[in-house]
């Protein structure tokens, strides 16, 4: 059936449409039940074996790293203490330099009176972090304070 504008109506095929499938279509099976269980067991055994080998390697590396930390710890602590004492000496020298024109000033005292009266003179008193950084840059003091607050 043709119209004046050349349009044709879309009609069903002459032999008709195919029948609509209504019965159950079974799935294709790739693996049987026994093969699937066997493959699962095989991969589990192989995976456990590889995991055990890697676990042993990781434990060896952990022991090695812990041994290295134990070996380096005394050296690092000694360097930290050495740096600490060097900074204390620098602070004392800086205080001497700042107060050299002030009459009667003695380093480590408050106008000649000892700060700690009950402590023997030869005993070391560790300064707090404000006294430690008293002659340092404010940036260094802030960095140390933030490190102390966050750790």
TrEMBL record:
GO terms for cellular component: mitochondrial inner membrane; respiratory chain complex I. Pfam families: GRIM-19 (PF06212). It is found in: Mitochondrion inner membrane. Keywords: Electron transport, Membrane, Mitochondrion, Mitochondrion inner membrane, Respiratory chain, Transmembrane, Transmembrane helix, Transport. The chain crosses the membrane at residues 31-52. InterPro entries: GRIM-19. It is a single-pass membrane protein. Its main location: mitochondrion. Residues 1-20 are annotated as: Disordered. Belongs to the complex I NDUFA13 subunit family. PANTHER family: NADH DEHYDROGENASE [UBIQUINONE] 1 ALPHA SUBCOMPLEX SUBUNIT 13 (PTHR12966:SF0), NADH DEHYDROGENASE UBIQUINONE 1 ALPHA SUBCOMPLEX SUBUNIT 13 (PTHR12966). Complex I is composed of 45 different subunits. Interacts with CARD15, but not with CARD4. Interacts with STAT3, but not with STAT1, STAT2 and STAT5A. Interacts with OLFM4. Accessory subunit of the mitochondrial membrane respiratory chain NADH dehydrogenase (Complex I), that is believed not to be involved in catalysis. Complex I functions in the transfer of electrons from NADH to the respiratory chain. The immediate electron acceptor for the enzyme is believed to be ubiquinone. Involved in the interferon/all-trans-retinoic acid (IFN/RA) induced cell death. This apoptotic activity is inhibited by interaction with viral IRF1. Prevents the transactivation of STAT3 target genes. Complex I functions in the transfer of electrons from NADH to the respiratory chain. Accessory subunit of the mitochondrial membrane respiratory chain NADH dehydrogenase (Complex I), that is believed not to be involved in catalysis. This is NADH dehydrogenase [ubiquinone] 1 alpha subcomplex subunit 13. It comes from Vespula vulgaris.
């Amino acid at each position: 059936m043709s119209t004046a504008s050349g349009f044709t109506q879309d009609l069903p095929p002459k032999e008709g449409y195919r029948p609509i499938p209504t019965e159950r279509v079974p799935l294709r099976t790739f693996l049987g039940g026994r093969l699937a269980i066997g493959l699962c067991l095989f991969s589990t055994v192989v995976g456990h074996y590889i995991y055990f080998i890697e676990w042993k390697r990781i434990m060896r590396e952990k022991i090695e790293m812990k041994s290295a930390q134990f070996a380096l710890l005394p050296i690092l602590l000694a360097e930290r203490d050495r740096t600490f004492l060097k900074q204390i000496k620098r602070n004392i020298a800086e205080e001497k330099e700042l107060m050299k024109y002030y009459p009667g000033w003695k380093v480590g005292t408050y106008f000649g009176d000892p700060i700690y009266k009950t402590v023997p003179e030869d005993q070391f008193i560790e300064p707090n972090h404000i006294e430690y950084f008293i002659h340092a840059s404010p940036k260094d003091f802030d960095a140390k304070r933030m490190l102390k607050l966050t750790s």
